Each structure stands twice: as structure tokens, then as C-alpha cells.
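3.2 Worked example (two chains)
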Amino acid sequence: MGSIRRTAARLILGTSYLLLSLALPGFGQNSVLHGTVMDTTGAIVPGATITLSDAAGRSRSGTSDPSGNYSISGIRQGSYILNASAADLALAQPIHLDIKSATQTLNLTLQVRAFVQKLNVEAEGTPSVSTDTANNASAMVLRGSDLDALSDDPNDLADDLQALAGPAAGPNGGAIYIDGFSGGELPPKNTIREIRINQNPFAPEYDKLGFGRIEIFTKPGTDKFHGTFGYNFARDFWNSRNPYAAQKAPFHLDEFNGSISGPINKSASFDLDVTREMNDNGNVVNVVTLDPTALTPTPFTGSVLSYSRWTRVTPRIDCQLSQNHTLSVRYVFNNDDVRNAGTGAFNLTSRGYHYLSRSQTLQVTETAVLRANTINETRFQYYRPVTRSVANTFGYALQVLGAFNGGGNPIGNSSDIQNNYEIQNYTSILHHQHNWKFGVRLRAATNSNVSPQNFAGTFTFGGGVGPQLDANNQPVLDASGQPVLIDISSIEAYRRTLLFQQLGYSAAQIRQLGGGAKQFAINAGNPLISANQVDAGVFIGDDWRARSNLTVSLGLRYETQSNIHDWRDFAPRVGMAWGLGRGAAPKTVLRAGFGIFYDRFSLANTLTALRYNGAVQQQYVVSNPDFFVTIPALSSWSSAVSSSTIQTINPKLRAPSLMQSALGLERQLPLKTTVALTYANSHGLHQLRSEDINAPWLGTFDPAVPGSGVFPLGRPQPVFEMQSSGLYNQNQVIVNVNTKMSRDISLNASYMYNRAMSNTDGLGTFPANPYSMAGEYGPAATDVHHRVFLAGTVTPILGIRFNPLLVVTTGPPFDITAGQDLYGDTLFNGRPGIAIDPNRPGIIQTPYGLLDPNPIPGEAILPRNFGRGPRQIVLNMRFGRTFSFGGERGASRRSEPGGGAPRGAPTGPFSIGGGGGSASASSGRYSLTISMNIRNLLNHNNPGPITGDITSPLFGRANQPFSGVGGGIFTESANNRRLELQTRFTF
């Protein structure tokens, strides 16, 4: 089977190469610029001449048709000056335009020549307000030197992008699109041409929310040969210690990168990027474990060295098949090898595993100019990730809640093979004052997964109530001769188990003295499962220029998918941009919009339901097992003490929907600055959550009696059902400020006030009490109240460029749990009660009051996500300078916004410019950039997930720094403040 797939992959690549070869000499990266020409009254202007001129003086022209529409094709991506004129009409000033995509729309407004004044051309990328739908001032567009604020590391880059987008409206965060495709992997930063964030939030062609949407566009080839070779170097000697490690953990980074681009012939270009990263990171372990001799709880910190070797090769070819057809082909090969993954935080060395990943991505985009006013784009993507994970230690896993995780890794020897297909066909038609767009997107995915997850079993120790022991480990008796009961932590329950086992006590005696595991779980059956899924979306939209200062957007989208029975996912979209005041270029714009957005039910959820259906695999759960650590054969278990967990999908499950509305006011300020004030409201229905529909009836379950309880389905078998009954509500007030006050200062800043409430944070959310939703509606995981963001480029003196990225947020919420299975549903998510009797045994004093880990009737249960973590302050900084030599580059070099030598800098054969990795800052034929990238410049301790188990010795604290959304298989978390020296040679 593998050989067939390898042969097919070679055939696809070979066919692609052959097609490109046959197309020569018609190759080339060309774009199409189109739009409508009108006067200040909103009337169309036929016969207008539109001219594009590049830096070398070359020009292309077009003429508006009787409907006022124009189209200019065969344009190479880059920077241009646009002029337009007709009889007695002209632009108020030339437009400095950056052609940055295969198709670009620009509507033009001409004024009477007598009133046209001679104005200076604004600097490229100057912020301005507009009634165009895709030019909302609340959006952020990064290109050129502004990209230097972002990290080169893929995981850190994901964190930076999330910071740029901010907490997205909605419960699931923002979506990332790469060259118009969903899914896939982040491209290397040096291949990114432009990043757009929060642009055109209610566009019907997108399935995901506009607020928080991230669009990444990669670089095409160039018409002259250009290359960049870089080396990134980092060592722990200049970093600061991880605050959760007793000593500085080791960290070593060596990253090599090379890219070259240039022409194939007159109408073809290529771009090739190769990256090799070798990273050794000390994963910090911060736990409470037992002294092996005295069996006393002892805090322990240390580090486990994790090795990552990452290689990525990314070729791209852009070509012009004919005057009206262009083609772009991009291929990505990615290989990742990580040793000792999964260690750190609560996980000891034995929990590590070897992670291998190899992925391939093929993207093909064809753009056709069908008529002067009609453009069609067809896109295809194939994404195939293949992963394998092998545990360092095989055997049962040990989980002492909130203290440490030891034993073997439950992952065993797992593998996963995915095939993801996506095809899009979008058409744009300009007709008078209307810009119609319609299209369809189809996606298909297959997944073959081998997962012997937890086939060796897991013992879980939690806290609870037990007898107080004296110095001789004997129960302390009260005046009546009864043991004095106290609350004991999870690590104490584990200590008593080991101690009394060594003393030869029976399992019953150990449990009576407060020891014994709370739960044992083990899986068995067939580890292989396969599934597939298809989803489709169709849309139609119209941007109607109702008046010269008023644009109305109307759209409708419909989505559906296999694997769930939901055929009602209609998503209307409407938007309005109204320029306040007189004239065709208003200084103030009022925007409003409304739209419905859907989330697809993922294939991974379907795989879970198919695997744990009770037939393919069985999940056995034993409460209060008395066989630690000798695991009996499954066939010897009695039905009274074991149960096989079933996971199902509710037959009425619907795709989660979110109704979003927004009202914004944008204002053009002096010094090339815009400010936008936006209010956004989100109302989510059918949000995903889970529930045990066979939990014991209340009052029938006794935690001390294994298998107790009366079950609705008549058998002691948890049935976890995936449902879409959740609710989500969010309100946001956002202030955005964008300024390019000079060629040396470019800044983006925002402030967000956010309130988000829900009764679920996804499918992993179960109600604490399976028969009551009381206290479930509370702060959502996204309920971060305040957020301040600042990023940009500043070149203050001597050509030294600074790229700051500052994010300050208040603390996120976290859930507080009792650390034991309170309701017999095999879950440890039960929340403590608010104690009404301070003298009741087991009551715990916390910063949130007296809490009862064993709530009794009459006690109110603590609401969900009641805890609140500390604030986060992150300031990243890149600074450097570029040395240029070898004479002038010539006008045909690749032009990137934000480039050009700083004012006052020399421009002769040897010159100095702002640095940080952008070759565009240099004026010489060759340039050498030396820069330093500093993560967490202030060395602020930003705690990671807060431990919410009140029986944990670490309750209310973190045992690791915040790793961000990019954290995953491998994170550069060894040191708190990290410095990375970077060099780049460009020609």
C-alpha cells in the first residue's frame, strides 16, 4: 500500500513538472487588477484610461468599458504608480499601489480637473479610511520590515500571529489561511510576503469568523536572481533561567536557511526555500514526588533534554500560460524528528516519547481572465501529514493528580496517516456599481490511525478524606475513639499506599487508612481505525457601490458535511460602509455588519466515536482498584468492578453556529494615522459539549463501594455522548490605531475589552454534576477582560531598526475541581462545594473561601471557571542593522513595503540601513544583516496553566511558563528570556 502511494506521489509531481515544462515559454507570475471607475457623484465613467507604471518606467494600460469596468492583466506582483483620467476628469493624486495577489480589486473615483490639486504621493502602505469592503481600518496588514517583529521559529510564529489577531470573537479562536487555503502548516517566515488580519470580517467567501482571521500570502518568484542565506544562533549562556527550574536548563539552537528566486524565462519565475533547524531544549520538570527512602513528599525540579531536528524544503513556480491564464504551483516538504517529547511540567522522564512527522503539501492556483470584467480562480491543495509516536517506556502509566505523572507513556507505538484535499473555484464579475463574487469549496479528508492508547493501563491517585496519622503512621483517635478525619492530598494518598504496602497491609486496610488508587483505566481491542469526511460550502456575494461614499455588501453562504445529519447551515452576511461628510474621500467611515458562521464537526471526533463504540476498542474503568500495581487479566475482572466506556455522537448534533454583529467608527487622523473603534457581539448556539448519559442516579453512588449506583441504562457503563447543546455569549470593544507617521516609524496598536460567558469550552467539557447544569454557565476560557497590543518598526538613529511586539493581558479563568470522581461517571471534573460547616472534616481553606471536596446536600457548588490566573506581560524585541555594498541594485529588484534606506543614511557603494532580516532595507547590490531577536525582553514570569485541583500540593499555582498556542510537540521553553543572534546575506 505504501509503495502505491509513493508511486502516486511521484506521478503527481512528475505530471506537474511535465505540465510546467510543456507550458514554457508561457510561464510567469502575473496578476490581474480590475475595478470600476466613477466620478464623485457615483456615476460610472466609461472610456477612462488607467495606467500602471513600475520603478523602471515600464507601464501597462487599460480602458474602462461602457459599464465603467476596467481590467489590466499580465501584471507582475510588486509596487506601481497608478494614474487614471478621462475627459475633464482625473484622480486627485496618483495612487502608490502594491500588487500582492493573483487578483486585486481597486475602485477609482475621478474628480473634475479644475479641482484637482497637485499632491505628494503618500508613502506605500499609508493607513487611510475607505468605504471599500476590504479596507476596514480595524484590519492589520503586515509586509516588509514590519514582518521582522515576528519570530522565525514556527511555534513562536504561531504565538505571535495569535497575539496580532487578539482573542477572536467566538469560542474557537481565529482561523489561518495560507494563500487562500485552509489547514496545512505555517510557511517559513522568510517566504511570507504579507499577512492580513481581521480584514473584511463578513465576507461570504470565508467560513470562519473575520475577527481573528489570519491570511498569509507567500512570495512569488522574481524577474531577477535574488538569494538570501541566513544563520540563527542561540545558546543558554545568555538566556535567563526558567523560573520553575532550580538551575538554568540547557538550550542550543542552530538554524540554517537559504532561499533563491529568479526567472525561468521571460514569463516564468521560481522561488526555492530550504530550512534546517537543530534545537536542543531542556524541558523543565516541576513536580512534587516522594523521597525514595523516607517516602516524604518532596518538591523536585529538573530538566529533560529534548532534541528536535526539523527540515523544510519549499519550491514554488509561477507562470503565465497565456495572456489570460496564470498558474502558481507550490510544494512543501516538512520533516520533524523530536526525542523526549512529552516531558516537562508534571511529566517525568519516563513519560517521554519519540515523535516523527513527515508532511507534504501541494498547492496549485490557476487564474483566468474570462472577460474584461470577469475573473475566475481555481485552487487545489493536497496535504498529507504522516506521524509516528513511540513511547520511551512501555508499561502502566501513573498519574498522581496535581503532583506528578510517571510510569510509561500511554501513547505506546502509535501512527497516523492523513490525506486532505481541498478544491476551490471562485468567480468575480464587475457590473456597473456591483462587484459580484460567487464560488464553491469542497474538502475531503481520510484518516488511518493506529492507536494502542493506554493498552498498558493507567493508575490515578486523587485526594479525599482520610484518617489523620501520627508520627508512627497510625490513626489519631478523637475522644470517642473514632479516627480523626482530615483532607488528604493526592500525593499523600500515594505515599500511604506505598508505605502500607511495604508494611504488608492488605488492600482493604490500605484503603481504610486513606491510601489506594482512585481509578484504574485500560483500553483493549483493535488499535486500527479509519474514517473519511467530506464537507462543502457555496457562496454568493455582492459589493454594491450604492453611492460614491456608501458601499453595501450582501452575501449568502451554505455549508454541509458528512458524518453528521445537519442540512440547515445557511449563513447570511450583510455589511455596510458609509463615508460621513462630503467628498469622495471621507475622513470618517461608519461600518456595520452581521453574519452567521459555522464550525465543522471534525473527523477526529468521528474517529473517537468509531473507535470507542464498545466493539472496536473497549475502555475499561475500575473505581478504587485494589490491585496496584499488579494488573490482573481483563478476563478475570467481574462486571461488578469494571465497566467499558462508550463514546457516541448525538444523532441530532448540529454544527456549532455563531451569530456575530459589529458596529465600528473609523477616522483618518493627521500624521498618516487611522483609528477605529469597534463593538462586536457574538451569540453562539449548538456549541459542542459532552455528557455521560448513563451516570448513576443521584444519591445511589458511593465512592467507597466499587460498582455502586443505579444506572439509567441498567448497566455500569459510562456512555459519553457528544452533544451540541452549549451556549456562548461574548461582547467586545476594540480600539485599533495604525500609523506610518514617517518612513522610519510604523506602528500598530490595539486595546480590547472582552467579556465571554458560556456553559462549555468544547467537547472536553462535561457538566460537573451529570444531572444538573447549575453553575455551568460562567466565564468562558476566552474570558480575558483586558488586552493591550503594540507592534511595528522604528528606526530612530544610525540605521538601527527596532521591531517591538508587546502583549499585555489580564488573567484567563481556570476551573477549580475536587480531585476525585464525585458522581460515579469516572470523571475527575466534579467541583467542590462552598462549605456551610467550617468544622466538617476535609474542609480546605483556599483564596476562594472554605471549599468542601466532598459536597453534601445544601452546599452550593462552585461555578465553572471560578478561578482567575495572573496577568501576562510579553515584550519581544528584534533589533539590528543592514550593511549594503556592491553598488545600486537597480530598479528591477523585488520591492517590498517598508524598504528603502532611512533618511540621512548614505546611499553609495557602501551604506548602512535598518536591519532585522529585511533585505529591502538596503540599497546596495549585496547586503549583510546582523540582528538580535529577544523573546520576553522584560524577563517577566508568565505562568502557564494554573492547577485547579484543590487536593493538589500545587493548587492555585503553575509549574511551567505559558507556552502559547504554538506550544505542542516541541517548545523552546527551557529559558525564560531567550536571545537569538541572526545573520542574513542577501544578493
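3.2.1 Second chain
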Amino acid sequence: MRIGDGSVGSRLVDPVELVERDALLARLDEQLDAARDRGRVVLVAGEAGNGKTTLVDAWTRLRADDITVLRGACDGSATPRPLGPFLDAIPDLADSADGDRTVLLRATMHRLSATAGTPVLVIEDLHWADEASLDLLRGLAVRLAGAPALVLVTFRSDEVEPGSALAALVGDLVPRSDVVRLDVEPLTLAGVRTLAEGSGANVDAGALFRRTGGNAFHTTEILASAGSDLPSSVRDAVRGRVARLSPDARASLDAVALAGLRAEPGLLADVLGPTADAVDEAVRRGVLVDAPDGLRFRHEIARLAVADDVAPMRRIALHRAILQWLGSGPGDHDPARVAHHAEAAGEHDVAFTASVEAARESARLSAHREAVLQFQRALRVATPGVGEPVGLLEELSYEQYLTGQIDDAISSRARALAIHQERGDRTGIVSGHRWLSRLQWFNANGPAAHEHARRAVELLRPDDHGRETAMALSNMAQLCMLGADLEGAQRWGERALVMARDLGADDIASHALNNIGTAESVAGIEAGRAKVVESLEIALAGDLQEHAARAYTNLISTAMETLRLDVADTYLEPAMTYCAERDLDSWLLYIDGYQALIRLQQCRFDEALAAAHRVLAARNATPVSRTSALVAVAVVQLRTSDPAADETLAAAVRLAEDSDELQRLDPVARAEAEAAWLRGTEPPALLARAYELAQHAASPTRRDLLAVWLARFGLLDPVPDDLQAPARHDVAGDHAEAAAAWARLGCPFEQAMSLSDADDPASLEEALHLLADLGATATAAHVGRRLTASGGRVPRQRRTATRAHPAGLTEREAEVLDLLAAGRSNAEIAAALTISRRTAENHVAALLTKLGATSRSAAVALASERGLLGAET
């Protein structure tokens, strides 16, 4: 086997450890053969200790003659350093690690393409990966077709939390035709028995199997204790194995365990002194593994068990010794590693400096979650007179804001504001109030947002022309824009824009242009969108990530608000990709919430629910994002007779009322009105309140949608003389013309509702058919009752795809299922059906849910077993 830079050489693999892994080895062989024509990614997943690393090690050894291994691993001992596993595998990347993901990706692809033989890039323990590494892996998977290479990634499936960045990455990659997931399952009783017999230990294989559940690591570690009393946990198993080493060897393990992912030979020589040679015993006994970059434990869980057992004073002494070695120069300068050891050693000054460096480096590489952890460490170890805590609190708050940790961001910013107030720092106070205004808006606390904005502006003086002054003005423009106050957005925004251009502040110029352009777009001024596009271009050119995300978001939201759904679709995918690649969770979830509303408007209910559930499942989803998601779910539930609709809608109402903002109150009021219409109850009070707000706002489309609902209840008095089509036709009673106009806008539900308002049997029948085809079964039933009451006869419904398919799939989902069975990837499905790739992904997710399958292959197998492939609709 040819060894590339940064790789770990082949090591002997005990054949007994490969029990029940032949099928997995064969699958790896297949993927390697396929990778020679088109690059492949193999995700090797399994619970901790099931033998993922052992499998990969064994396979690379077996294929040693025709592959070149590049190996990196993610470090679970401290805050991971950005791009750590890739830099370990391909050290040359360090020259390209300037924060530009495109450059990093190009350099990685070049290295793989230039490697002799078939390159195999092994990334271990992805569950500990930093965000930058996850993003680079995502981009690599998309472009790997251009290189004859195989990427092997291992991760613990039991540590992938719902809503996490890794869960999102795995979910995005698995559907691809060039990505395969291999699950390393626990051993069977027969496998445990084989291991027990091979070890020579005098144990009861059945009892061992029951105790371990077939976990390969638990089993092998217990067997390695050579028949001593069976431990009750993995920790005891490790202790039993370590106890058989000599005192010096046992002592050396403490240093290796505390060193982290690896312990370099030079580190061990300096830290252990004359007893360093004792490490060799641990290597011979299989507790440690020797690799070119240092020694490490065979299993990370064993390292953690040993590390936990190190006595407190010895722990401090070892961390100090490791820190001294890192500071002496022979090791790589990794500020995150230095910070970890310095904090553990009680060297707070060093920990502070290294943490700040690591945090800013993480932020520069768009690993914003890691930046939060490092800033928190810096503040934790900061002592009076070291650095400037108020500045760190502000940097921490910003990173928390970007990653959707809004409550924490508010707390950090409030602490900083208090310090500014104690010092009488007027500029800092203005900044603090302006930021708290923004954060409270994200927290759906409209009154607090406006109060902080007012305080910031009141503190300004006529001769103030600095950055904070311009941002305070632009923040007022932003709140006016969000409240559909066109005049206020233009007045405050133009002042901020002039000041920003005088200062040469592109970020503030982008912010102000966004506010003005969005307000104009919502008001129906076509030139407004050009200003938001200019804001986006400025932000992208300057790598102003927050401002680019805002511009993307407002292009989507205004298109949705003005029912330009085609425009919204144009920006959705690039916006979500941009935010996902940069840890901009606040914006990613906000956009996904709007995607749920857009798909709801298009009556693509499964896709609306999929987007909404992603938001609601995320622990860091802000209240404003949750409001959109809850509305989408509630309306789908209303239209499909789901009894949970009332509870969901009530949750959306609470959040919308807290925000006290038209853009939240409007969709919630219309959802409540729809519920009342379905049930024949009085219209909600919120409908009239939202309409009153809309009458005084520069948001004609929202006003018109609310007016239609008021007219439906006979409450629109007086009728505005400036209603736009289709609402104008609806209110005037020209329902056929209104329905045609709604259809042209791509709003089929509103089209059906206009037809149902006509009250003549032919229109009601057409509405009934359309609602049934959309899957709005509860609404269709209501219209059917009205048709019967008017003397008409409810016709036999056209058989919709959902009802006709034996598994309840829509016609489109049935087509997708057949393409899955043909081995098509999501991209190929999208091309075959002339839909977007994201739409294809949503269709796949929906049919997996309906079939009760956990993977594409499982869905095809179930469909084949139940005779669903090619089922007629």
C-alpha cells in the first residue's frame, strides 16, 4: 500500500476481529472498483464500539497493493480545530486554508487527482468534526465524480442528534447515487462465540453476548482482560486491560490519554522522560497504536476511560507538561489544543490568549459554532486586566446570533451593554441597544426591539457620523421595513445609506439598501427588488455573510409576500446552500420556515411539512422561524382533518402576538379565519386586527388577502377602492375571474376557494374536484356539504393519485418510487421529471415516510415485496 502525506500506515489487524464482516468488506471492494470510473463516498456508520475503524483498517490492509491511503481523524478531546481531519490527511491544504471554501475544495480535488494509484481518503470519527470539515466534505461529495477516488468516512450513528449539522449532512449525502452508507451492526451470538473461542478466554459466550449486546469493542475489551472478573462496563474493561501493564507503562497511558487525539513521540519523550520507553509495552499489548504522527489508543472510548481515571494533581501536572511542550515549538501551533491544555493546567492567561485566537480563526473559516465554544472558554478563564471582556462578549454574541442561539446572544450582549453603561461609553451604549433591538426582533419580541432601537437613536448627537450612528439609523429603517412602513424605511434608510457611503462602509450600505429595497418591494414598487439585489451583490463581493444571508432572505420573503412564487423558487436553493455552508443557522432556519409557507401556498403539502418539521426539530430555531413553520403545519392539518390543528395553530398565535408584527399576524389570522370558515364559527378577532394593521401598512398584497377573508364572512365594510386583482374580483363577486387570476399566480387553493364562493353547483363541483386533487380533504368535504345544501349532487370524485395508489402515494411520488427502483439518484430523478433537485429530495422523503422505510433501498425492497412498483394511479 502506497502511503500518501498525512496518512497512517497499515497496521496488523487481528483476523479474529473481522468476525461477520465479510459482506462489508465485499461492499467496500465494489465501491473501490466503481470509484475508479467515478468518485465515490462511503459512510461507515455504527454505534460506538461496533468496529468501524477495525473494518476500515482491515480493508485498507487487504487492498494494500493498489490503493494510496490519506488518513485524518476528528478530535473529541477538545473543541475541534477547523479542517483538522483534512489538514492531517493532506497537510498541503494548510497553504490554502484562508477561509475560501472554493480554494480548499479545489486543492483537495487536485491532491486526490494527483495521487498515484487509487487514492482512498479516510476521515474517522466524523461525529466530532468541526463545521468547516463538514462543509468541505459536503462540497467534495458533490464534485467527487471528477476524480477516481474513494472517500471513507466513519461516524457514530448513536451520536448523530436530530437537527445537528452532521444529521443534515448525512441526510443530504445518502440519497446520492455516488454515496453509499454501510452500517456496521453489532455481532450476533455466533459472532461473540467465535471471538470468545479465538481469544482462549474462559467465558460464557451467551452471558457475554447478553452483557454486551454484541458490541464489538465491549466484547473484545472484555475478552482482552484474559478471564479476570467480568467488568460491568466498558470502563471496567479498560481498567482490567490497563492493569496488566507494568507500572511505568500504566503511567505512560495517562500522558497519551490527556494528550488528546495523538501523542507525538517528542511530546512523550519530554513529558515522560526516562520512562518514555514504557509506552512500547502498551503498543505491544495492543492498548496503543503506533502511527507516523504519534501514538493513540486503539479506541477513543478507552482513551476517555483512562483520562477520567487520572488523579487530579497528576492531571494538572501532565497538562502543564504538555502545554510546555506545545509552547516549545516542536509541535504544530494549534490554538484550540493549546487552549484546552492551558485551561486544564490552570494557566488561564495562556488559555485566554489561545482561546481568543482559536475563536477568531474558527469564525474566519465560517466554523461559527466552534467560535462560540472558544469565546466561551476565553470568557471563562479571563481574569481582570487580561484583554477586554466587553469586546469578547460582543464577539461571542455575534457568533451566537449567527448560529441561532438567540437567548444566549441576548444575554451576552446585555452583559456587554451593562459594562458600557458603567463606563459611560456612549458609542458602546448605542451599539448595545441597536444590537439588542435586532436580537429581540429575532426573539419575536417586537415591543422590546422597538424600545431598544428608540434608545439607540435618542442617544445620537447631530454631529455623530460614525459607524454606530449609521447602523442605528439603518436599524430603524429595518424595523420600519419589517412593519411595512414604507415612508419610515425610506427616510431612515436613505440617511443611513448616505452616511455609509461617506464612511466607505459596504456592510452598512448593503444593510440600508436591503431595508429600503425590501420595503419598496412589499409596497409593490418594482424598482425595490433591484436595490435588494444590489445589497446582495455588495455582500457577496465583500464576503459579508450576515448581509448576504439577509438579502437572500428578503428576496425570498418579499417574493412570497407579493405572490411572486416563481421568483422565490429562484432564490431558495442558492440561499439555503450559502447559509448551510457558513453555519448561518439563524438565516437557514428562517429561510426554511419561509420555504414551508411557499410550498403551502403552492399546495405542495408534503414539502411544506418537510420544511416546517426541519425548523421545528432544530433546537436553535428562533421564534420568528418557528412561527412560519407552525402556521404551515397548522394549515395543512386544517385542510386534512388532523385533530392536532388547534394546538398547532394556538402555538403559532402566541408567537405571532408576541412579535406584534403584521408579517407574523397576517398568516396566523388567515389560518384562524380558515379554521372558522371550515367549522362555521365566528371569525377570529385577530382577523380584523391584522386587517386594520394592513390598512395602515405599505403591504397591499397582505391587505388584499385579509380583505377576501373578511368579505367571505360579510365583514368587509367599507370595500377599499384600490384592491388589486384577484382580490378585487373576489370581493366584487366575480368569482370565475378571480379563480382564473389565482390560477395564473400559481395559487390553486385560493382558486378553489373563489370557485366555492360562487355558490352555483357548477362552480362548487369544480372547486370540490380541485380541492380533492390537492389533497385538501377537509376543505373538499366542507364544499361538498355546501353543494348538497344548495340542492346540487356531490359527484363521484375523480380518483386522485393519493387515493388510487395502494400505499397512498401521490402520482408524482409513485413516479419517484419507480425511478428509485431503477437506481436513479436525486439529481437523475429531478432531471427525469423536470423538477428541482430539492423537490426530488422532498418527494423521496415523503414516500419514505409513507412506506415506513428508513432508507432508499429499504423503500424499494418494501415496495417490491408489496407489489407497489409500477402501481397504477
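3.3 Remarks
The CA atoms of residues 408 and 639 lie 37 Å apart.
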